[in-house]
Amino acid sequence: MQHRIVVLGAGYTGAVAAGRLARRLRREDAAITLVNAEPDFVERVRMHQVAVGQDLRHRSLDEMFAGTGVVLRLARVTGVDVDRRTVAVTGVNGPAESGELEYDTLVYALGSSWNHQDVPGTVEHAHEISGRPGALRLRERLARLDAGQPVVVVGGGLTGLEAATEIAEARPDLDVALTARGGLGDWLSPKGRRHLRKVFAALGVTAHENADVTAVGADHVTTADGTTVPAAVTVWTTGFAVHPIARATSLDVTGTGQIVVDGTMRSVSHPDVYAIGDAALVAGPGGKPLRMSCASGTPTAWQAADAIAARLTGGKLPNAPLRYFNQCISLGRREGLIQYVTADDRAVRAALTGRLAAGYKEVVCKAAAWGVVNPTLGLPTRRRPVARRTPEPAPATGTPA
After folding, report:
1. 57, 64, 88, 261: which has the fewest C-beta neighbours closer than 10 Å?
2. CATH fold of 3-113+240-322, please?
3. Cα–Cα dist 191/144, whole Å
4. What is the pTM of this model?
5. Could you tell me which residue ranges the FAD/NAD(P)-binding domain spans (predicted)?
């Protein structure tokens, strides 16, 4: 009997995990099913480009996984029963794809969406770019704006910086502003902050610093001190919220709904479940949780896939460190900022700026996409027979095995 592995979600982490598992395990021993609601892979890190009218290359999941042994199931996940080891799905192309999937090992990679933080008016009036549907809606709205109309990007993190500069570069006729709870780029090095302000000035982006937005209206946002900032379009980029399904299960999750995992990405409460990417609470250097990002997610996918393969085949468990090296920020198509950081993501003095940094960021994005759309290339073939059919019990302490 084949060991049934079900991977939920085909974003960066889920697609990478499925491909890596296909590379590690023999087809006669393992049946790998990848569940996703969309038929193609979406480069989530480029949604700010989609929002301003740029077209991305189409990447079909069917074509990506052809010949790998991975079975694609086009469906939405509607429920997970970790006690019965089943996943409920609803087919996106009709009832034929709906039903229940049974698993022996589950890889939970459903990721995250925008976090409106229950700020009044956000759901009704703000746009988000956490996925392709939201980016396309914003694209249509921006295309209808007349010259001189104001656009406000709420959130001074990486997504906000990229969105504000991309919009300002693509539409120099608009009045683009960004609101940040703290200072502009206050986590960056002095060199990084200087370059960010230089780019904002060149693009004409107004920065409202120390401005916590407390309400969103149809034509404005309001900050905590009562200031009203005009906004024909509001773009909300203040963080991400994980998919709610895990919270409805008996899995051990955090208050925000992230699944608590050990160092091999295995659930501390259910040893047959692995969580990766934004869906997991992963401890990095010094025990500090990894932030939600592609830079964090892909290494967790490698770790989980290698751990699953090792446990099934009797191999050695992976022990790769999960750490950061830099933060890559695009500031339009011609400018960028690469902020070098410590292992636990704190800025150091060194930073790369300008066109070279923009090129660096583009290479990183292309490399990440290449790793996803070529799921079984770039790794040595090490397929081994499955030695045991069920995962071993989870450690009682929740520490890596």
Report:
1. 57
2. FAD/NAD(P)-binding domain (3.50.50)
3. 37
4. 0.91
5. 4-305
State the sign of the Cα–Cα–Cα–Cα dihedral 282, 284, 289, 295: negative
What whole-number distance in Å separates Cα of residue 74 and Cα of residue 363?
30
Residue 237: DSSP 8-state = -
Neighbours of 291 (CB within 10 A): 17
What's CA 56's distance to the chain center, in Å? 17
Q: Which residues of the chain have pLDDT under 70?
A: 376-384, 388-401
- End-to-end CA separation in angstroms for the chain: 26
| Displacement of CA 288 from its chain's centroid (Å) | 18
Helix (H) or strand (E) holding 273: strand 273-275
CA 373 to the chain's CA centroid: 16
Please tell me the distance from the alpha carbon of residue 313 to that of residue 382, in angstroms, as a whole number. Answer: 11
Domain(s) labelled CATH 3.50.50.60 in the chain stretch across: 3-113+240-322, 119-236
Q: For residue 172, give both structure tokens.
A: 């120099």
Q: Which two tokens stand for residue 255?
A: 């208050």
What's the CATH class of domain 119-236? alpha beta
| pLDDT value of position 287 | 86
The residues with which 364 forms a beta bridge, in sequence order, are none
